[in-house]
């Protein structure tokens, strides 16, 4: 079990800059991605998995928030398919490099990135990888946990930063 403060404080810390930096029509998406980012990051660090109970409901929630923002639905679907496909290929080629939850999370993240800009897809992949290497890997190593390094926090950081830059 995760204590509520482990999620409440970081979520509030991300919602504050979201309200200041996100364009008004993108604000619900920024708040959603921040909340998902905190929740899934805490779970990923603690349990080394991204549960279906959170990743699968993210699909319609992100879709609804993108609709609210006035995003092009075809662009969102294309971005989701591209990002999902790329992450699935990595998972199939090197199963130890990426978990199944990361692959499932890649679709809503890809939808967000593509809705902001086509350039946000490769930029998001770079940001996600950088966050995983620079921030997540040392934290995971300090906890001396067996298994791979969580990539979900990097994916969600990239999506959140992209939404903040949407204006």
Question: What would the keywords be for this entry?
Answer:
mainly alpha; 167 residues; single chain; globular
Structure report:
There is one protein chain. By secondary structure, this protein is an all-alpha fold. It has a domain of 115 residues. 78% of the residues lie in helices and 0% in strands. The termini are far apart. Keywords: Hydrolase, Membrane, Transmembrane, Transmembrane helix. InterPro entries: Peptidase_A24A_bac, Prepilin_IV_endopep_pep, Prepilin_peptidase/N-MTase. It comes from Saccharothrix lopnurensis. One of its GO terms (molecular function) is aspartic-type endopeptidase activity.
Query: What is the assembly state of the chains in this entry?
Result: single chain
Class of secondary structure makeup: mainly alpha
Count the beta strands: 0
Percentage of β-strand residues: under 5%
General shape? globular
Task: State the helical fraction.
Answer: over 70%
Largest sheet: none
- Unreliable stretches, pLDDT < 50, 5 or more residues? none
The overall average pLDDT, rounded, is: 91
End-to-end separation in angstroms reads: 38 Å
Please state the CA-atom Rg, rounded to the nearest Å: 15 Å
Tally the helices. Answer: 7
Order of helices and strands: HHHHHHH
């Amino acid at each position: 079990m995760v204590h509520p403060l482990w999620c409440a404080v970081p979520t509030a810390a991300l919602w504050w800059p979201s309200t200041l930096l996100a364009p008004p029509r993108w604000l619900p998406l920024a708040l959603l991605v921040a909340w998902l980012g905190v929740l899934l990051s805490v779970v990923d660090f603690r349990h080394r998995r991204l549960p279906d109970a959170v990743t699968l409901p993210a699909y319609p929630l992100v879709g609804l928030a993108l609709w609210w923002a006035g995003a092009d639905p075809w662009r969102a679907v294309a971005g989701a398919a591209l990002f999902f496909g790329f992450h699935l290929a990595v998972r199939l080629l090197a199963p130890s490099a990426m978990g199944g939850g990361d692959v499932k999370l890649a679709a809503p993240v890809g939808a967000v990135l593509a809705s902001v800009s086509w350039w946000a897809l490769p930029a998001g992949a770079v940001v996600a990888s950088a966050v995983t290497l620079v921030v997540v890997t040392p934290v995971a190593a300090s906890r001396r946990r067996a298994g791979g390094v969580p990539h979900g926090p990097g994916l969600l950081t990239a999506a959140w930063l992209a939404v903040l830059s949407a204006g």
